[in-house]
Amino acid sequence: MRRNMRGVSVLAIALPLISGLLVSPGQSEATGRHQPTNGFARSGPWNTKLPRHVPLVPNSAAIVANIKQDKDENYQVWAFNTHTWSSPIYTASWYTPRLRWTFSDCLGLPHLAPVIADTLSSVPTPPGMLVSQGTDNTVAIYQPSTDTYWDFWRAERDANGNWSACWGGKIEHYSRNPGIFTNPLGAAATGLPFGAFLIRIEELRRGRIDHALNIQTVRVRANCNSWPANRNDGNTEGVDFPCEGQRFRLDPAFDVNTLRSPAARTIARAMQEYGLIMSDKSGSLATQAEDPRPYMARNGGVNPYHLLTDPENEIPDDDSYTWLTLADVPVERLQALPLNYGQPR
Predict the structure, then answer these.
(1) Among candidates 283, 14, 158, 131, which has minimal Cα distance to 150?
(2) Which of 5, 138, 155, 208 lies 20 to 30 angstroms, CA to CA, from 189?
(3) What does the alpha-carbon distance between residue 187 and residue 267 come to, in Å, rounded to a whole number?
(4) Residues 174 and 201 in one domain
(5) Are residues 300 and 327 in the same domain?
(6) Of 143, 121, 117, nearest to 18 (Cα)?
(7) What's the chain's Rg over C-alpha atoms?
């Protein structure tokens, strides 16, 4: 089953022709305002709250019906991807060793080597760093001292300790960036960084998520991307399928207190307040949270999601939370916003 819960699909590279919070929530010296927990600019698409009344695309119901059909026909779940088909997030210190990575060219596109060369040239690489489980092998790294962020796809360490990646990207001046890679960089097929949308363990602990989340589904509209995405790998023709980058939100009239899991209640509130952005296509309907394995390595191997998603210990102590956490969030109550909603003019 897991091999189909894909987090990042094969890259749609538009040819020119992280562990825990990426930043600690605290006040910006310049503004005195709290920095969003994803670290990106407050004014970017991820950190901008939706007004209660927003315009919906005229065929919103049809688009949402297709997303629900994807759920019903692919494992009957809205997957909460964490330990597989998501990404670890690492915060690198000033002293983290910097390594020169190599371009692995798993797609047979050697002409892209110069495009990613700067991204790979000097990467702060924590010793013992893990990449995601599954075939995507993704990882996100943020270095606060340089305010720089990297994410990688098909990252791999060889027997000699040398790292390589098939694709990825680097964002300098991270805290001023809206949460969008320069096209065609970035591990996801949309150019949207993991650091912008992954749910953090600490956010679930505090019961508050202050940024938009991601959503992935099986069928996405071919040749269509919506801001903030700057490219796509759409696979299905038709106007009633979601575009990558399109924004959704959970109906604000839905009572999140009816949800069983406290984590689901926290996640659903963020879906109402900040919405969800279609970040990629996948093998099932899914939303992603940070890979817990770096946290587990520091804390005796205890998976924090078990307690956060099921404090009453009502489900088996294994990966069942992946399938059950979002089980009672009503897909049919999603709403599709117009393409390019919120794009600066």
Answers:
(1) 131
(2) 208
(3) 24
(4) no
(5) yes
(6) 143
(7) 19
**CA 1 – CA 245 distance, rounded (Å):** 26
Residue whose C-alpha is closest to residue 150's, from 164, 159, 135, 139: 139
Q: Tell me the DSSP string of 203-221.
A: HHHHT---S-EEEEES--B
> Encoding tokens for residue 316?
């088996």
Please identify, among 123, 153, 186, the residue that sits at the C-terminal boundary of a domain. 186
Domain-located, residue 177: yes
Judge if 223 and 313 occupy the same domain. Answer: yes
The answer to whether residue 16 sits within a structural domain is no
Written as one letter, the residue type at 325 is T
Structure tokens at 112: 């892209």
Cα separation, 93 vs 139, in Å, equals 16
Tens digits of per-residue pLDDT, 100-138? 999 999 999 999 999 999 999 999 999 999 999 999 999
CA–CA distances in Å: residue 280 to residues 184, 246, 298 = 14, 10, 31
Query: For residue 189, what are its two tokens?
Result: 């097929």
* DSSP 8-state secondary structure symbol assigned to residue 50: P
Q: Are residues 201 and 151 in the same domain?
A: no
In a domain, 26, yes or no: no
Determine if residue 341 is left, alpha or beta; phi over 0 gives left, psi from -120 to 50 gives alpha, anything else beta: beta
The three-class DSSP label of residue 7 is coil
Q: Identify whether residues 100 and 203 lie together within a single domain.
A: no
Q: Is residue 314 located within the same domain as residue 329?
A: yes
* pLDDT single digits (tens) 34-82: 678 999 999 999 999 999 899 999 999 999 999 999 999 999 999 999 9
* Residue 276, φ and ψ in degrees, nearest 5: -130, 150
> What are the angstrom distances between the C-alpha of 334 and each of 57, 211, 278?
12, 17, 12
Which structure tokens are listed for 102? 């190599």
Query: Is the pTM higher than 0.85?
Result: yes
Q: Which of 166, 186, 206 delimits the end of a domain?
A: 186
**Residue type for 246, please?**
Q
Can you say whether the dihedral through the CA atoms of 266, 89, 41, 286 is positive or negative?
A: negative
User: Is there a single domain that holds both residue 181 and residue 49?
Assistant: no
Question: 162 and 82: one domain?
Answer: no
